[in-house]
Design brief:
Elements lengths: L6 H10 L12 E2 L2 H10 L7 E5 L5 H9 L2 E5 L6 H7 L6 E4 L8 H9 L4 E6 L5 H10 L4 E9 H8 L9 H9 E9 L4 E2 L6 E8 L10 H13 L5 H7 L7 H10 L13 H15 L1
Parallel strand pairs: 2-3, 2-5, 3-4, 5-6
Antiparallel strand pairs: 1-8, 6-9, 7-9
Helix pairs in contact: 6-8, 9-10, 9-12, 11-12
Length: 289
């Protein structure tokens, strides 16, 4: 079987199966071998590893992962790709393809069955509209994870790794940085894909922390505070927290808490670091419940 990391072989396989790109699945297949090598290298895949690949497409990256890993579990939502994957991956006996929506897969169960509950590595070329739910789903469901190495829209990758005071900083930045250390591996131009997307992409590696960098009384309360702080970016932090329907915080408690932290009452959410959000959520939690 020819490797798929080049346009000619990709076109051949697509024509053989009369494959039609599905807009609803945001399909853009990678056709650059150098980038594929870089992804596998930066994910530090070894013969010990069990890898979950989300959205294998026609199996391009799956081939590279299968060469490097002990086992690859590829989860693909588009059933029209399944016969293609059976063809392109026929030489690999260490790959299992699951035709399902990754958001509905019990990944914890998979990890127990396939990797004795030891941490897995996740690799994906994600459609842009579903990046955040997938990443947050992996973190929040407490899947035993070593790292997530993913191709995403460049601006989403930027957002995951920026700090306070920048326009890209927001709830996603804080959520990712609470769970993992984000590092952009490489920026990828549209010409490396078929069909070419309209925007640039980046590969970003999220290395999961063994212990979160901040300690909080209640994790879900912290994230409610963070979301409320960015829901209306132009509003002050006080108003953002007051207007959040799911928090039921009293104004005097919010003001008291900010004063305790020596923060201005006109401060906005985008000025706070993760440490400050953690402290604020702990103070509010203890005062309110």
């Amino acid at each position: 079987m020819a490797t798929l990391g080049n346009p000619k072989n990709t076109i051949e396989i697509l024509q053989k199966y009369n494959f039609v790109f599905q807009k609803k699945y945001g399909q853009n297949f990678l056709i650059d071998g150098n980038i594929l090598d870089k992804i596998v290298d930066s994910a530090e895949i070894t013969r010990e590893d069990c890898v979950i690949e989300i959205g294998p497409g026609i199996g391009t990256m799956t081939q590279y992962l299968a060469e490097a890993a002990r086992e690859v579990i590829a989860v693909e939502i588009d059933k029209s790709l399944i016969p293609i994957l059976e063809d392109t991956l026929s030489e690999y006996d260490n790959v299992t393809v699951i035709n399902q929506d990754i958001l509905k897969v019990d990944i914890n169960k998979l990890v127990q069955e396939r990797n004795q509950g030891k941490p897995i590595k996740v690799v994906a070329n994600l459609p842009y509209y579903i990046t955040t739910p997938i990443i947050m789903g992996l973190f929040e469901s407490k899947v035993p994870l070593d790292s997530i190495t993913i191709m995403v829209q460049k601006e989403v990758a930027d957002r995951m790794q920026v700090g306070p005071g920048t326009k890209d900083y927001g709830a996603l930045s804080l959520a990712v940085q609470y769970y993992a250390n984000p590092e952009i591996v490489v920026n990828v131009p549209p010409s490396c894909f078929m069909p070419q997307p309209k925007v640039g992409s980046s590969v970003i590696r999220l290395t999961k922390y063994e212990k979160t960098p901040v300690e909080v009384e209640n994790e879900s309360f912290l994230f409610k505070i963070i979301r409320a702080s960015f829901n209306q970016r132009r509003k002050t932090l006080v108003n953002g927290l007051l207007n959040a329907g799911n928090l039921n915080l009293k104004k005097e408690v919010i003001i008291e808490s900010l004063e305790e932290m020596e923060l201005s009452l006109t401060i906005r959410g985008e000025a706070l670091t993760l440490e400050q959000f953690a402290r604020l959520s702990n103070i509010l939690w203890l005062k309110s419940f």
